[in-house]
Amino acid sequence: MQKNIYIDIDGVILTRGGMPALHLDKFLGYILKKYSIFWLTSRCRGDSKYTVSYLSQFLDPYTLKLITSIKPTSFQVDKTEAIDFTRRFIWLDDFIFASEKNTLVARGQLDSWIEVDLIKNPDQLFDLMSRNFA
Ligand SMILES: [Mg+2]
Question: How far apart are CA 94 and CA 97, in angstroms?
Fold first, then answer.
């Protein structure tokens, strides 16, 4: 069954100073072709129009077009509220709360979280693609 991919914005597709992450277009093209992609960010609360409009100040028109097909989610406190645990998934995030980590551990899904650290490795999106991360 096709995996879901949940994706954060700050620290994952945008790096320091709101700069788009390196290799972002290739990465988005790669995951959008293979998987169902969902926003998992405080910048999306059930409607991706706001998310796309927020990102329009940082991304060029080509990249913006790519992200319009990313599906919205919504959560109140923990991002894990928005995850469909009945399906296999990958969650790309630079930081998760202890309560979110506890939820993943309790469900035996801690491995589904990929910690993105673009400061330590600016080429991480490329590296993930090269090793077929999902
Ligand atoms: Mg973040």
Answer: 10
List CB-based neighbours of ion ligand 1 within 5 Å: 8, 10-11, 94
Cα(94) to ligand 1 centroid in Å equals 5
The closest of 88, 114, 101, 118 to 19, measured between CA atoms, is 118
Total domain count, the chain: 1
Residue 10 and residue 41 in contact, taking contact as beta carbons nearer than 8 Å: yes
Dist. CA 53 → ligand 1 center (Å):
18
DSSP state of 57: T
Residue 128 lies in a domain: no
Which tens digits make up the pLDDT trace of 24-40? Answer: 999 999 999 999 999 99
Q: Is the model's pLDDT at 2 over the cut of 90?
A: no
How buried is 78 (Cβ within 10 angstroms: 0-12 exposed, 13-18 middle, 19+ buried)?
middle
Residue 84 lies in a domain: yes
Give the domain range for residue 88: 4-21+31-94+106-117
pTM score: 0.95
* Spatial distance between the Cα atoms of 11 and 63, rounded to a whole number of angstroms: 17
